[in-house]
Structure formats: C-alpha cells, structure tokens
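Supplementary notes for students who missed Thursday's class. We covered one full example, reproduced here. Read the sequence, then the structure, then the short commentary at the end.
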Amino acid sequence: MKELFKDYLFQKHILVSETGDEKNAFEVVFSLANLFGIRIVSGEKLAETDMISYVSEQLGEDVPEPFYRGFPESVRALTEEQLAFDQLLHYFITYGMGDFSEAGHSIFEENFERTAFKENITIKEFSILTEADAEKKLEQTVSDLLAGTRPLSELQYSLVCQYITDYNYLPSKIASKNTAVRLLLDLRNISLAAHLKMSDVIKIVEELNYRSYDNKNIRKLNLKNRDRVFITSVIDLLAVPGKCDIENCCEKKHVWNGLLHHIHFRAKTEQAKAFVNVMRGKENLSAYAAFEKAMASGDVRKAASCLKKRKGSGAVLRNLNYLISRCSSDEDLDCVIECLDSRNLIVLIQLLIQYGQYRFDAEARTFKFTKYNRLRVHTETEEECSQRRSIISAEHRDRLTSTLKEYLKSALKGRLGKVYIDPDMANYALPIQENTSQGGFGVLPKGSRIHIENAKIIRAFTYWEKVNDIDLSVFGIDSKGRQTEFSWRTMAGRKPDSIFFSGDETSGYNGGSEYFDINIEKFRKTNPRILYLIFCDNVFSWGSFKTCLCKAGFMLRDKMQSGQIFEPKTVQSSFTVNCDSRFAYLFGIDLIKNDFVWLNLARDSNAAVAGTTSMKFLTDYFNLTDIINQYTFFEMMAEEVVQSPDEAEVIITDKSGPYPEGVEVIREYDFERVIALMNR
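Structure (token representation):
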C-alpha cells in the first residue's frame, strides 16, 4: 500500500499489515508500547517488524538535536552574556560567512548526563488492519470527504486524487465545486465536469491560471493551446439544459467575454449559441444585479425575496449581514428572517459562529478568507471604518442566532437514533473549513481544545531538512490584542524560569530543530497580562514549506530534565507543515482555562519574520467550542441521547473502549465522518 494511504490511516490510529504473517508479532506489540506508548487494541497478531521503523518516522524518533544539546538545563545554566555571544557567533558563521555546512552549537555548554525517562504518559490506542480492510476503510473515507461542500486540505485532496487514480474509483458525488475543479484539472478526465455547471468554468480557469501559470489575474490570460482546447471541451460538455446556468454566468459577464475571446470559442449547438449571445449582450440577467438594484433603492424586502426566489435561501444567508444592516423597520427584519429557511447545514453553522463572535466595538475589523488553500487576512483601514455601514444591533444579533439555532435543530433532528455522547466531546470543534490545515498525527479541527493538567509542561517543537533556517516562535496576546514576542532575538537578554527556548538553529539544511518549554503555572504568574499564547513557524531562509521537509507538534512532559529532549512517548501530535507559504500558525494556549487550542492555519504570506502583523484575529478560534461543538452537534442529531454506551446505536467519544459490537463509534479525529454527516 502506498505511503500516502498508510500515513492518512495512521492519523486515524490505524496501522496496516501488508504481509499478514509475522512470527514476531508479540515482540513488535511490546516494542510499540515501550518505545512510543502505543497500545494495540485489535489486530495484535497482524503486527509486523517494519511497523516499528514506520511509527518512528511518523512520531519522530530520530530528530536532529537543537542548538543547545542539553536543552533546557544548559539554557538555565548560561549567563545572559553567554547566551548573547552564542547567538552572535553562530549568526556570524552562518549568515555572516555563509557557512551552513555543520550544525552550530553552543561553545559554553558543559557535558552532563540526562536522567532516565520516568514519567506518566498518555497511552495512544491503535488498531491493525489487513490491507484489504484498510482499502475498504479508505473507500469510505474518500466517499465521506467527497460528500463535503467545503474545500479539502492538501492532504485530504491528495488522498482523494490518488485513490481515484490507483483504484479506478468513479465518484458518484463530488459536493465541493473546489474539489471537482481540482480533480478535473489534475486528472484531465472530462467526465468529472458532470459534477459542475457552466458558471463553474470560471473557477476552473482561475485555478488553472494560478497553478500552471502562477498568475492570479484571470483578466490577463495567456493559456497554452492544449489548455484552450481543454477549456473549450468543458464548455461544450456543459452547454446543455440543466448545466448551462446562464443567469449565474451573468454575474461575471466581463470575465466570460474575455475568456470566450481568448479561447476563440465557437458555439456548436443552439444552447451554446444562446449562452454566447447572452454573454456578449448588453443586458445583465444576473440575480445579483436585480438584488443590488433593490438594495440601492432601499427596498430590503424586495432584495431578500429576489435572492430567495432566484438563488435560494443559501444566497440570503450568505448576504445576511448586508441585508440586516439595511433593515429600517421590524417588518423588514421579519421579511429577511422568513427568507432564511435553509437546509444548508454548513452555511447555518458558519453564520451561527459568525454572529456568535460579532463585535459591536468601533475598532477596525479583521476579515479572514481563503484563496488557493491559504489564509488571507484584511484589517479595515481608517477610511473603511469611517464608511462602514454593515452594522447590526445586539437585539438583531440575538434574534438571528436564535433563529439559526432553531433552523439547525430542525434540519438535524433524529438523524442518528439513540446516541451516547461523552461530555468531553464539548472540547472538540466541527471541521468546518479545514482547507488551510496541515495533516498529521494528532491533528484536530481548528478551535478544538485539550485540557492541560497543572503539573504538565508543554514542549513545542519543529524540525526540518532541505532548508537552513526555520523559526519557531511564541507570541503572547493580551485583552487588547497587544503582542509580546518570545523568540531567540527577544529572549537572549533575559532568563525567565517559565519559558525556555532551545536556541536559534540556522545551519539545519541537513537537519535542524527548535523547541520551546512552557511551564504554564509559572508563566501565568510571571505574565499576568497575557491571556493567550500563539505558536508560529516561518521559513527564514528563502523558500516555502512546500520546498523543504518540516514537521511540528507538541509533547506533554512532567519534568524539563527527564529523558531525551525528544521523547516519542510524550508526543501528542506530529504533523507535516508543507503549505506553499513561508508562514504557518501552529497552535495556541488559553492561559485562562489552561487549554491547548488547535489553530493549524497556512497563511498566504512571504514574511520571513513572525510578528510583523497583528494576531488578534486568531483569538476568534479560542471560543469556537463555546458557540457550537461536537457535543452540541450530535445532541441535535440524536433522536434520543442515552446515558450509557450499552444503550446506544452510535457512540461519540474520545475515550477507549471496549464498546458493544456492531455499534458505530465516532472519535474526535474522525473528520471525514463528521463532514459527511454535516453534508448529508
């Protein structure tokens, strides 16, 4: 089985047996427990020797040593002058003299012996499947991913694309236009266009223009002849009743005109001729043109009704803030709310989150959106703030959130029968928009929380190859959004006893690593103003994460001095950072609740140094589970919530079994299953 498939299943706590005949199964199971803290709960007899090296690669047993070999003891032992001199000397050798041939290390460190590792660890439970059973699991996973209406992450998309190729899988449904467009371009299988409509051709061209020509401006096309022929074939296929949605195409008439001219399109059918005539005509038949005309005249009720009739309730939901902010009477508001009835669960959930985080202050707002699977951020300028009109009252906000919840409950009720839900599932967010995420072991949906026991120390790590310098940094955020940086350049002149940095490794082309140790109890006392911590990775050397090998993650430790710097047993997550960007937000810590919070965002940025832009917007992710979480979602879906797993038809839990045979168990990391349920 291909590594991509095995790696993806590993994230789901599944190992794949490829031989099915191993004489040393008992020894392998014992080694997995001893080396990595992995307990095999099923399929023990299928354990194979190769699994030891495979798990080592996934969790990172052979990780390059950091700048301070004895981190963190040696960091505490050195004076501020020694720390600063180490930094200057290392930078002079690497960036000054251009010598990156050998990993740099402290010249002041003394030799010492580490104490043996003796800590309590969290056991990781895994199953072992035969290759045939693993393939069945993959097929269900791919089917569930394709049921989602939102774009997939790079890893999820790679899995789907490779599975379709290797197993000649013909998708019966591709709910996401983004996914259908990418598959169509990568596989060049024209039949996949059947999952799209004519208006989606613009998406195809935008994606093609960016990926193949590194051009983000669709109005300046210079496609090669083979791509022109391909786009023409797609248009010909979609120029049929039911697929040729002329009204939606009118929303981008100017772009369509440029495209049709560029590919020298000639209509071959009557339907195609009618389409071309409308695109080249002067009249705009777009529903949004009529909508904007009604809004410009101040007729909110007419505008909302127009959208619902011609574009559906989903379009009303997507323009809700615009509509509500222009309501001048209760009658206007009533009309808009009556147009909201929608079965689109994803849009309902997203709006519930949006209004649950709605701010009434006059500060500049920050808007988050994604393009080409990278996060883009825009903060309002002073001029934009002064001209802002899309403001709603607290009363309207509360009424909207109440209505959205009722619609959501109505749409979900009774879908799963008798359900047992572990109370701790309230800590996990829903996988709403994971396309900017990196994939790997232990990754959870954005906003998900893991409670940190008071005695535990968080050790965040990153390590890399094929690039000289990647920086791991931490930023403290206070209640006003002010940032405090913790990095090599800010910590060389001070020696706090609550946060330690391993040193800035700048000669790591053949292997480098950086770490932070944070004693949360002490940190909270010494930094009372800071409420949240944000961990970032950025490529200081020129290039992006896509061009190198980089992993990041965190460990939960009892003692800073215990065992090796990198102990696989204590690894809670180890994921690959491979986005086409120089900057990624990894995770955060909520110092108020003592929780670890997942962020996992690839930002569209060429910043070589972290902290040059505001991170305040990231605090939105820290309260996602207060608005909606996996517990409340499955509670809405249940016909009946039962108090015991023995009574359930479906069990929602992050705990180990055993559970009754034949009962479906959904875990906190089962993204695909939750995605399928949200899009059913």
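Commentary. The chain has four domains: 1-124+432-623, 145-280, 287-411, 418-428+629-678. DSSP finds 26 helices and 21 strands in the chain. If anything here is unclear, bring it to office hours.
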